[in-house]
Amino acid sequence: MDAEVVIASSPTDAGISCWDLHTGAEHIRFKSCSSTAHGLASVAGRFLASSQLRDPKSSSSGSILYWSWNKPQVEVRSFPAEPITPLVSNSQGTYIAGGGVSGDVYFWEVATGKLLKKWHAHLRAVTCLVFNDDQSLLISGAEDGSIRVWSLFLIFDDARREDARHLFEYNFQEHSSRRVTDIKTGYGGCNAIIVSASEDRTCKVWSLSSGKLLRTIVFPSVIDAISLDPGEHVFYAGGRDGKIYIAGLSAPATSNGDYGKHIIGTLSEQSKPITCLASSADGFLLVSGSEDGMIRVLDTRTRNITRIFRHTKGPVNNVVVIKQTQYMNPRTSANSLASPSPRRHGLPLPPPLEKFGSSPDENAYVKAFINAGTTPSHILNSPSYVSVRTMEDQIKELQQQGSSAAAEVNVERLKSEQLRSVQMIQQWKNMYGNLHQFCVSEILDVSHTEIANEQNL
To answer: Which residues are listed as membrane-spanning (predicted)?
Structure first.
């Protein structure tokens, strides 16, 4: 079993707590964090990032902070053009996306801090951001109840953007103009499902392949947090009434007399509202945060609480479960902070994120490479876009320095390129298989038609 780590934060200045999910051992506690909801992200396990909003009434008080795994203090501070609420990183840690209170979405390159793209996504503040599992789509939710699906192929293809009627792939408006509180995506790339929650007391299940609403589930309480079971048979919904509901995704529309259609039962009942949920990789453990400052670990098979962590006296608004990486020191705990160890070291953190984008001339230099550009975007599985200037800068650095750090950067880049190549090969295999099946079906249909015509004659 791979070691997994629970990370939690709150809107009060209570820092960031970190525990081993399976042993309960506390790791380093990070200082000076007042996170926004959905504003805590692990950047490929290399470091932590969190959006901050000190004064909600101020339009210029937002910031984004970075922490490395070997120091409790903030190491990098960024000050975007406006307060950022949700913050998300892609799985490889190359990009960070943030949602602004104006409704704009910002897209930064981690290695350089460059603001690559910014676009107006919603009429009101962005509340949720999530990548789909193959990183080709970015899904956003907002205070106006809308959910929009953005193809990164289109966002980074300037020529196609000029011809497009709108930037989004889908615009879901069925949440009755009530604030979207959480969004989760399943597996399957562009054929996956989306589950969304809103202050209208419903969770809705959407199809990414068809853009259609598949199911609406009405709950007894407002749902602020959801977590998908890895098998996608059920999902868990944390309510403001303190209950964690179990809702069926593939089950028939049975009705539970206590809760309603599609709601199988509850996993836990508490006195305080559930604010955030996260699952272990195997789905056997569900981690919940609530307004009482407690983080509870529940076994989804027995429905029992197996462990309780205390983060703060105030509310918890973010819990994240990640695999323990090489950048974390498992020996680093809350009890060992007073005695620094020479083993505690890590890679230097990237520079702060840009406040504004580059000039028009510099923007023209940022290229977007789209694999198989003539193929419809809903078929493609993996985006491949890079900054040409960044690549050239990295090459110069490797040539000039020749250091171990530069070599590690080169290794990581080669691994990323190899992964993209494997994904591309698999993608073309799938496309070839689909085309072959289509041709065979057409030939068989024609043959059957000819035989039927001959028999009629």
So the answer is: none
